[in-house]
Amino acid sequence: xxxxxxxxxxxxxxxxxxxxxxxxxxxxxYDVRADPASxxxxxxxxxxxxxxxxxVCHQAAMVGLGAGFxxxxxxxxxNDLGTAVLLTAMADAxxxxxxxxxxxxxxxxxxxxxxxxGVVRPGPRAVTxxxxxxxxxxxxxxxxxxxxxxxxxxxxxxxxxVYATTKLAQEHLxxxxxxxxxxxxxxxRYHNVYGPGMPRDTPYAGVASFFRSALARGEAPRVYEDGxxxxxxxxxxxxxxxxxxxxxxxSRGGALTAYNTGSGKxxxxxxxxxxxxxxxxxxxxxxxxxxxxxxxxxxTADSARLRAELGWEAGVSFGEGMREFxxxxxxxxxxx
Length: 336
Ligand SMILES: NC(=O)c1ccc[n+]([C@@H]2O[C@H](COP(=O)([O-])OP(=O)(O)OC[C@H]3O[C@@H](n4cnc5c(N)ncnc54)[C@H](O)[C@@H]3O)[C@@H](O)[C@H]2O)c1
Ligand SMILES: [Zn+2]
What we know:
Elements: E1 2-6, H1 11-22, E2 26-30, H2 43-49, E3 55-58, H3 72-93, E4 97-103, E5 111-114, E6 118-120, H4 127-131, E7 147-151, H5 162-181, E8 184-190, E9 192-194, H6 207-216, E10 222-223, E11 230-231, E12 233-235, H7 236-248, E13 255-261, E14 267-268, H8 269-280, E15 286-287, E16 300-301, H9 304-310, H10 318-327
Parallel strand pairs: 1-2, 1-3, 3-4, 4-8, 7-16, 8-13, 9-12, 10-15
Antiparallel strand pairs: 5-6, 5-7, 11-14
């Protein structure tokens, strides 16, 4: 299969390219980082790049939480205008297969249950609570403590920041494209991806990158809140394998299918910091009580659908992956 990999020079995209090659496919990299003309917002270059292509694996995006609201227009431009231009060119070129890099950020806060009220959806956390060190969201009905659980694909979406909003809009655009063209669209909603080649710390990077970069400078990783935030850290090679599985599968035409893409084994951010620190030989993490507005408390996936329908399985364990990541190289500079 000839696959156009947008963002193919990025962290995840470059692993996708490698995994496709290893399976005997022909990946073509389309990325502004590799070639300044290869912008997904450029209709002419996208159209030319689609010649003879069987499928598109759309990884290109501006990632991360960003710096406040100031870069909102740039997120929308790259992620949503970019996706619209790409899908239009695919419609014209008759390319009917899309795999999209989705994200768990579309869910907002994860799934919680109250002993009295069952599954509830807490809203964004209040600044006064965060300032007072009350990090756990409480039951919106009775104020009781909640227990976090695993989010399924059918959970309601609730994007909490600009980046999350653009990732959700990408899915809606892909679904509209699938309905209009009969094409098949798959969104792999990645959880926290980490591994070799992860960009160094910038406002656009993931938490594993911040910790790893601090340790490389000989500094203690600074863990926000109380360190008990739960996440699903999934290794980049497993994410690349999920992309290959989705590209090779015969997916339903005319609709978008979403799959959570996580390891299925939640860990806390504090555990991740400790695992990296010990693999690097210290220093030990510091839990600071600071927070970032827009961060959610717990978000962990149920990836059963991906395992059942695409036969995918996460192969890299947390311990093994973190030990490798502690030694692995990182990429310099801001993405895009
Ligand atoms: N890293 C994670 O934990 C994570 C989690 C969920 C979803 N994702 C998604 O995975 C995808 C890849 O993310 P990543 O972590 O590899 O980030 P990355 O920044 O390393 O890769 C993104 C690539 O896209 C390219 N790009 C950006 N704008 C472009 C444009 N307009 N035209 C062409 N290329 C452009 C960049 O040059 C970069 O190489 C993104 O869609 C992101 O939203 C990542
Ligand atoms: Zn309650």
